Amino acid sequence: MSSPASDFFPNATPSVPTVPFQVNPILGLIVEVVILLLICGHFFIITTLGLYKPWNIADLLLFSLSVADALNAAIPLQMLNVLNNFIGPETWNEASCAVFVILTYTFRIASVCTITLISGDRAILLTRPLQHHVIVTIERARVAVIAIWLFSIFMSILPFIGVGKTGYRKGFCFYQLYDFGVAYGYIIESIGIMQLILVLICFIAIKLSSGRFVKRQSTMAASRQTGGKNKQARETAGTRQVKQMSTMMAMVVLLYYISWLPYLLINLYGMVTGKFNHSQVVLVGLLSLVNALINPILYGKMSLRYRQGYIFIFRKILSLCGASKPDGSFFDGTRRAASKIARNSTAGTSCNARQSIDAAFQDGGFKGAKDESSTRRAGVRFEVNNKVDNEAEERASNAFLLVEDSNANLRSPDTSSLQTSLRSEDEDIKKINGEYSPLDESYDSVL
After folding, report:
1. In-domain check, residue 399
2. pLDDT at 77
3. Mean pLDDT across the chain, nearest whole number?
């Protein structure tokens, strides 16, 4: 029996054995274990995120990623494993094959694109920390997630609307890129390669920016030996947190490439040469699950918030078997803290502005002001002295700690009523920094 690949390549080597997709219970058991691990891992993530509402942008993107990976494991991957490895591949029909193909490519494209979106968000956070809350808002993140899912659905139905061919032929369901024809295969290959390049660019930007930040912090720490232990501890914490983000992104990129680069290469090789190896296809298919399999573990290890959620859910499950109920008060504390920050952010901004102006008056840094009525309109122009300059520089260098709260997305308060016009770049940074709500010291929103 010839492979469907021979329809596109006259000299193609069959991509499957003599009898396509022979029943293989041993392989089926291995895949079933992987499926269960995937479902359990992403169940912990999704449930944890449900307990941590309101979400920040990182939580929203991670939720989209986990839903895509969990659904991919629970529905299409389970269908493939049961029908091909246990029941028998001849039980496929045209309808079930179409459902399988559409769901598989919808969830996988959504997963790949969401990881790229997460990488872009982290890159903006480190390269443009003062503008991050303006460029990346929760509303824009929601629109981006919806757009990704709609795009994924559209790409998955292309073989059924004339771009390429469907996977069901000769009583079997074929699902590799080369099985849908060259046109569709090259479209998906192009999208996949583009995602890999974008993720790599984001990682390089993060690495370079974090390196500059660490170097700047080290220089500032050396020049402030008399600043006291608290200031030095603050600078050390900021450096550690940025290094943590850089390490985290390095691991994400590595897993991303391990999962998808072999898949793209073997399909590209198959489309160009028409030669396929069924064993290699199976191995690459398993490798493509590595990213989804390790992500829940990675998030739990690197983020205290998610780790606490995992432990709470695990103890909650044990309590159903008679164990003591876990204490979930820290979830309520998270919600109260988010609300408190929201209530106090505007007041804090005004207070910071008043303190800055008072400091300028006290230390003689006020050189020129308009008349009293202009001052009341906050049309103040002044030059701060060295003390205020140092404070502004410190807040600017710690901008990575002032971008987003780890427990909630909070809009920056509207301080347009101040209408303060500043002369130096450091004073501009000082004004902008006043509009940010502080990021939790643990930097747990990092992905």
Report:
1. no
2. 96
3. 75
Q: CATH number of the domain that 264 lies in? A: 1.20.1070.10
The reply to whether 194 falls in a domain is yes
Taking residues 96-115, report their average pLDDT.
96
pLDDT digits (tens, 9 = 90+) for 330-369: 776 555 455 444 444 444 444 444 454 444 444 444 444 4
Q: Alpha-carbon distance 99 to 96, whole Å?
A: 5
Asked if the model's pLDDT at residue 127 lies above 50, the reply is yes
Residue 156 inside a domain? The answer is yes
The tally of domains found in the chain comes to: 1
Q: Please report whether residue 7 resides in a domain.
A: no
Paired residues of 275 in beta bridges? 13
Q: Say if CB 310 and CB 48 are below 8 A apart.
A: yes
Q: What's the whole-model pTM score?
A: 0.72
The residue range of the domain holding 205 is: 25-219+240-302
Helix axes 138-157, 94-127, angle to 10 degrees: 150
Q: Are 210 and 249 in contact (CB under 8 A)?
A: no
